[in-house]
């Protein structure tokens, strides 16, 4: 698989995880999410997968798109996977509500852009 194809496949994974996360928080409040253990776990997992995929995007692609918060996504993934006692669920909720819609738009643009030859 060419690097561009590999990145595109990973971007699709990121897009799916971001959409999952926004779907999980749709219609919720930080408080209602806090009381719903299954939704909280689902949000954590979606955000973890998003960060894992972000870390697999090539360095070349990441460097070409510095406007994407690559390090923040990867850092959040590391907290979710390894330092779960530090998870700030209200901040996680706000990230999904306020930041993921713009990320989804960016990912959709990347995936619909003409492919380099």
In short:
The protein is an all-alpha fold and 117 residues long. Helices cover 79% and strands 0% of the residues.
**What is the average of the pLDDT values?**
95
**Count of distinct strands:** 0
Total number of helices: 6
Reading the helices and strands in chain order gives HHHHHH
Strand content: under 5%
Largest sheet: none
Structural class: mainly alpha
Radius of gyration: 15 Å
Oligomer: single chain
Structure description:
- The chain contains six helices and no strands.
- It is mainly α and 117 residues long.
- The protein has one domain.
- 23% of the residues are buried.
- The mean pLDDT is 95.
Topology:
Elements: H1 3-25, H2 30-35, H3 37-56, H4 59-64, H5 70-82, H6 89-112
């Amino acid at each position: 698989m060419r690097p561009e194809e590999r990145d595109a496949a990973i971007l699709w994974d990121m897009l799916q995880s971001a959409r999952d996360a926004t779907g999980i928080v749709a219609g919720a409040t930080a408080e209602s999410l806090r009381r719903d253990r299954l939704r909280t776990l689902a949000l954590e997992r979606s955000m973890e997968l998003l960060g894992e995929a972000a870390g697999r995007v090539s360095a070349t692609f990441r460097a070409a798109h510095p406007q994407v918060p690559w390090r923040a996504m990867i850092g959040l993934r590391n907290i979710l996977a390894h330092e779960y006692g530090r998870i700030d669920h209200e901040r996680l909720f706000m990230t999904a509500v306020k930041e993921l819609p713009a990320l989804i738009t960016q990912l959709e643009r990347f995936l619909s852009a003409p492919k380099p030859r």
